Amino acid sequence: MSFIVAIDGPAGTGKGTITKLVAEELGLINIDTGAMYRCVTLDIINKGVSLDNLDAINEILNRIKIDTKNSDGNLKFFLNGIEVTNDIRTQRVNELVSQVSHIPEVRTNMVNLQRKMAEGKKVIMEGRDIGTNVFPNANVKIYLDASTEERAKRRYKQEQEKGSNITYEEVLKNVVFRDQNDKNSSVAPLKQAEDAILVDTTTLTIPEVKEKVISIIKEVLK
After folding, report:
1. In which domain, by residue range, is 205 found?
2. Structurally, how many domains does the chain consist of?
3. pLDDT tens digits for 149-172?
4. What's the CA dihedral at 120, 123, 126, 127 to 10 degrees?
């Protein structure tokens, strides 16, 4: 019997971090859908394929192999047998992943894979359309949000920690662009499901958000 927790929301709300922490505490399988789209984006970049070359993109989708491995509590990602955990978080991938995720063929391929990965399991999955498209009948739906400026600050801090020279203004511009792209997409746009519980993380710490999410899930599990 499957048990699905869907965590949706825009970039920079802490979805990945919270999902990982909640999965560890409640013994759920964490499926990072954002990282899956990042793997596709990296493969497209590495192969020098244009985003309007659907034949080449379909060829990539037919051959791509995405795997994960839990290493000392950290989820590592492998693209076609090569570890890409850090490579999928580069600025180049950041700039293109939203556009790649809007390609219908990519979306269909990844959604089918995500559903297959969750069959018969207790899963927590984060993304932008999990509760509205991938699992509209999820047992728990949560929508994480935060102000645009706060999300940009978080992303900027992450980039600084990686030694990136990107400016805050550039990060903010990218966040605004992704928001517009995700919310106005003709393919599974970002939006809060009608039955999703909103958690605004703007002024909350990671432990506070984690406890809020866990309390919501436990209420359903009663």
Report:
1. 3-221
2. 1
3. 999 999 999 889 988 899 999 999
4. 0
